[in-house]
Write the structure tokens for this entry.
Amino acid sequence: MEKLQIVYLPPGELKPYEKNARRHSPEDVEAIKKSILEDGWGSPIEIWSDENIIVAGHGRQLAAMELGLEEVPCIRLDWMTDKQRREYAIRSNRTAELSAWDFSKLDEELAALAIDGQDFPELNFSRPDLDSLDDLFSPVEAQGEKEKKQIKCPHCGEWFTP
């Protein structure tokens, strides 16, 4: 197995793969830009060959270009054959689509973030049943000088304190 090495390159030097099957809407690119600004680079752009062909990360490259970033982190996949690179690109894009949300855990996380003052539009995620979070919160007896809140799970109806 190859050891991964991150290299930093100007986003304009990365070449989008002309047969990339995934498309990024302007809204998607905006969400990626917000994520980069808020969270930094958790996932480098994966590139291949001396031409710096993008294998995975086309949306991240578009976002970086729009943000005017001078460099972006990249991981070279040069040990792959052309066939392996094409298969990997499809497989890596498909993997996220095949996974499912655990909505009870997601609801708990979103509710806990709401208590901490998180603005849901900034997460670029909404659930119709969480559009009005007022029904999820209930004050608990004041403990000392701080009042704690409980969260009601919309699936099971149980109350918990985050």
